[in-house]
Design brief:
Elements (H helix, E strand, L loop, with lengths): L12 H29 L3 E6 L11 H21 L4 E8 L5 H4 L3 H9 L9 H13 L7 E4 L6
Parallel strand pairs: 1-2, 2-3
Helix pairs in contact: 1-2
GO biological process, one term: fatty acid elongation
EC number: 1.3.1.58
Enzyme class: oxidoreductase
């Protein structure tokens, strides 16, 4: 089955479920397992989830937006639940980032997308990595989602 986005009225349950399974259930399962192991080992640290600015809603992406909103909400909940064990939970919500997927877009679509970003460029993977490093280095950062979007969602 090809997994793709689509308007809500044309979105099949299989399309919905496939995106939810990967982008929300997958995050839940990974976080649950690592948190349990961290608690068992009494190891403090941070769990960082990846959300998206699409969590605020994006036409044609009901499934993806719902999944990423779920990741953001769960991240806040888990931060509160796990704080008593010295475990921080936070997230990064990228905007449009230079990836193989965006690199394969039609030039006119890429230009339209880039022109909508106030900084007039897409983010780079290393900028996402720096955001993750910031969270890891800041022991007081927990329960928040750091948006990295070139000022798209001000």
């Amino acid at each position: 089955m090809k997994i793709k986005d689509g308007e809500m009225t044309k979105l099949s349950l299989a399309q919905w479920q496939a995106v939810i399974d990967v982008n929300l259930t997958g995050v839940f399962l990974c976080t649950r397992e690592v948190a349990a192991k961290m608690i068992e080992q009494k190891s403090q640290g941070a769990i960082i989830n990846i959300s998206s600015i699409s969590r605020a809603g994006n036409i044609g992406q009901t499934n993806y937006s719902a999944a990423k909103a779920g990741v953001a909400a769960a991240t806040v909940t888990w931060a509160r639940e796990l704080a008593r064990y010295g475990i921080r939970v936070a997230g990064v919500a990228p905007g449009f980032i230079e990836t193989e997927m965006t690199g394969s877009m039609r030039p006119e679509a890429l230009e339209k997308m880039t022109s909508a970003i106030p900084l007039k460029r897409m983010g780079r993977p290393d900028e996402i990595a720096h955001s993750v490093a910031y969270i890891l280095e800041n022991d007081y950062f927990s329960g928040r989602i750091l948006e990295l979007d070139g000022a798209m969602r001000i």
